Fold this protein.
Amino acid sequence: MRLLSTLSLLAYSAVSLAASDWPQWLGPTHDAVWQESGVVETFPKEGLPVKWRAEVGLGYSGPAVAGGKVYLTDYVKTGGKVKNAPDSRNVLEGTERTLCFDAETGKLLWKHENERPYSISYAGGPRAVPAVAGGKVYVLGAEGNFWCLDSETGKVVWSKDFNKDYDADTPIWGFSGHPLVSGSFVYCLVGGEGSVMVAFDDETGEEKWRALSSKEPGYGAPSIIEHDGQQQLLIWTPQGVNSLDPVTGTPLWSVDLKPGYNMSIMAPRQFGDKLFVCGIGNASAVIQLGKGKPSAEILWRGTPRNALYAANMTPLIIDDVVYGCDVESSALIAARLSDGKRLWESKLPTIGEEGNGRHGTAFVVRHQDRVFLFNELGDLILAKLTPEKYEEISRFHVLEPTNEVFGRPCVWSHPAFADRAMFARNDKELVCVDLAASK
């Protein structure tokens, strides 16, 4: 059964890559690497062409692109006012939606609507990126409504309500764990006693297994790695990093790593036989994976003066260096993975050199020897990241930052890269930017 699941995942990834899709958070292979060729090497002086713009509502969730369609969730508010206070819940009335657009023209093809009041902090819309696979799209709402929809029509195939079905309280910042599809399994961060992680059958929604308990489930996304010939399903909760058998849900190992404010957000990143994990509250560590029987131990933990502490984005690893946005300084930081030593830092790609405040954010995607960064100012940046420096090549302003954090404007939504284009959203529009190289 494990072999079949592995083969299914590999086959799905291969199809996604060949089709130039971005069917889930962090792309087809869940590693924030864009494999497509024929992409611009520098932006034209007059700016990048915008293929289309489509009206959307509130949301932090990024788009997914598959089979010539773009899938996005949003929230249409009918009552209440968005108030972004980090320590209190904001009550809104409105409708949570899943929208499907034609990737070439931006035409709205279908929408699924669910009237759903919100009572969460930073209540401006859903958080999780849809996952598209096997003719279905899997969508998680901010209050725990989980939908499996037909990707062609938007009709409901099956659904779950995490509040009712699992007695899972909505975390203060909403359900945020992007769903993960692998073979016939759909993995979700749920919550509730014994059901922090739940695996569903992709066709029927039948529960295959549930595992783990935690006072708070956190906000991270499940991910699958392969080490020593075995797949492991990873999830970081506020109690620590956990490894499970992806087929049975059997716990394999766990290590203690507690972030501040229960903000376990990033997906652990694998490099060789090690993992890197970091978050707010001086939670930063490199974990050594064991050989033979699955096991793990922490090699080093960060101290306040070294390492990287990212909160809103999952850092990118290139060779033996990790690049990510530091929660305190708001700078993009390069840190050495062998010991956490910071090599350089720059606020230029995040909030600007003159910017101030915490949680400065840019989402980073690797393409060949360069990276694309989409920052909270609404800028798309093409740059090179090396252990020596941050080298900016081009910049294009894509979207206005329509949201707010700590008094400054921002857009916090991970973009998708597919069909030689970037797809990004704010709280008013979804934009397709042409990144094809000139012929």
Q: What stands out?
A: Residues 1-19 have pLDDT under 50 and may be disordered.
